[in-house]
Amino acid sequence: MSKPTALSEINAASESGSSVLNLNGHLLDPFPVEIFRLKSLQQLYLTDNHIRHIPLGIKALTELREIYLNDNLLTSLPDDIFKLSKLRLLSLTNNQITKLPVEISKLKKLEILRIGDNQLNEVPDDISKLDKLRVLDLSRNHINNLPTNIGEIRNLEVLYLTNNPLQRLPTGISNLKKLQELSLIGLGLDEIPAEVWALKNLRMLFCSGNKLKQLPINELMALKHLTLLFIANNKLESVPRDILKMKNLHNIEWNNNPLNKESIAFLTEFYKRTF
């Protein structure tokens, strides 16, 4: 699609006073500044374009609640995007962003931040000030360490750390008492970090693609609400049979491990029973 097509959609939204504008897949470059006329806009979809920069004028969209900028060519974020005081969702997956500015802390109403598949090397400590944040996706970046104060994001329910070169998890992560989903896929872990066992509300734990050789069954069984466990592509030679006593566990993804025959037998039976 062309920019003239996008402009016609912007004009139509302006005339109708629409709160939603979808310009996904229009191959847009640059960012169409005509959007800034849409003072009632609450949801803006700009995924799958060729946008390299976000103009400073974006602060004019004072009613914006959600913005989707996935699959573009962004390398940085302008200060003005952090002036969108009503923003609840910021989705930036699959760009080339190298830094998450400390100004992210100004988005006091932000609930969902997706910034996976970028070029981040670190996460600012100020992210801990996002009191309302429920979902944080940092997958497939170049992050070596997480902020030590990440446990202060008290309302966090979903944390994806997939495929980052993390050296360790900060001890403060055990303070994320509302966490329900945690992805540690592809971190090169020899064991599941001890901090995980303090997360008693976990429903989903993704640990595939590591170097795990054993599962600490007592700690695992203490996760009473766990429904899904991904442990595929590790070095497990056995899985404790007591895992079947976990009443809420309905899905175990265990393929591509050098498991013994006994483990394979009861896990296969478990799979047949639950699917």
UniProtKB/TrEMBL annotation:
Keywords: Leucine-rich repeat, Repeat. The keyword DNA damage does not apply. GO terms for cellular component: cytoplasm. SMART domains: LRR_BAC, LRR_SD22, LRR_TYP. Pfam families: LRR_1 (PF00560), LRR_14 (PF23598). Residues 113-185 form the Disease resistance R13L4/SHOC-2-like LRR domain. PANTHER family: PTHR48051, RAS SUPPRESSOR PROTEIN 1. This is Leucine-rich repeat domain-containing protein. It comes from Candidatus Opimibacter skivensis. The lineage of its organism: Bacteria, Pseudomonadati, Bacteroidota, Saprospiria, Saprospirales.
